[in-house]
Amino acid sequence: MRVLGIDPGLGTLGWGVIDVDGSRLRHVGNGTCPSSGGDLASRLLSLFDALTAVVERTRPDTAAVERTFVNKNASGSLNLGQARGIAMLVPARAGLRVGEYAPNAVKKAVVGVGHAQKAQIQHMVRMQLPGVEFAGADAADALAVAICHAFHSQTAERVGELTR
After folding, report:
1. pLDDT digit string (tens) for 124-134?
2. Counting beta carbons within 10 angstroms of the beta carbon of residue 18, is it exposed (0 to 12), middle (13 to 18) or buried (19 or more)?
3. What is the pTM of this model?
4. How far apart are the C-alpha atoms of 107 and 105, rounded to whole Å?
């Protein structure tokens, strides 16, 4: 199974792709999609085009997006939500099922605790994907989302097998 993890952001959207074979994980690629253009519509379009190219190039089987949290700045939260919409739309348009995970769920799946620091998350991603080079912090977060989805998908598959 090939998993695309996405860390949504209006300024920079992070992506990471892993292959999953049982309990084995293999890094396929990671990167960022910086938005360009001055107005919101142009920035969203640039994210859409860049993420579409990633999906076409990497051909994932499934995708996962990190849920965003609402902060004190309502305008910023709304804009981030629109970027998250792009992050969900692109894989859905490609026919992929899209999982959603809260930041604490991602941290717990990757590190073992829900309030881990970024350095701890990156360390554990490196442990699970030896030799990985991060294209940036957003790409590292996206790989963590992909790993979280891989673990949750495997658990759901096992439960499905047991209930059949």
Report:
1. 999 999 999 99
2. buried
3. 0.90
4. 5
